[in-house]
Design a protein that fits this description.
With 106 residues, the chain is an all-beta fold. It has no helices and seven strands. The chain is rod-shaped and about 100 Å long.
């Protein structure tokens, strides 16, 4: 009969399900804290268009606007079923809805 192995003599077994841990990892310090970071939000995003008999409405950012309303320094110049035209002085900006997915006949 053989003698039992001592703790130092027993082979170490690796658990294949144990997560890998990098003991050398040191997080980098950033110059700005997490609370200082603000999400960049693009202005004048056309979210939707409400088509009505006499006056269409548009949802831009989180506001519902009609022709003549101010929005982010622009004036709503025109609203049709697929786009909105904004005006600032002589400058015009067109906001379009994303194109819808068309069915493909096979």
């Amino acid at each position: 009969m053989s003698q039992p192995l001592t703790a130092k003599e027993q082979p170490t077994l690796n658990d294949p399900t144990r997560p890998l841990i990098n003991t050398q990892y040191k997080p980098q310090k950033s110059s700005t804290s997490e609370t200082d970071k603000k999400p960049v939000q693009q202005k004048n995003q056309l979210k939707g268009i409400i088509v009505q008999n006499k006056s269409n409405k548009a949802i831009i950012d989180s506001s519902i606007v009609t022709v003549g309303d101010p929005i982010n320094g622009y004036i709503v110049h025109a609203i049709d079923a697929h786009k909105v035209l904004l005006r600032k002085g002589k400058q015009y900006k067109t906001l379009r809805l994303t194109p819808s997915v068309k069915a493909v006949n096979k």
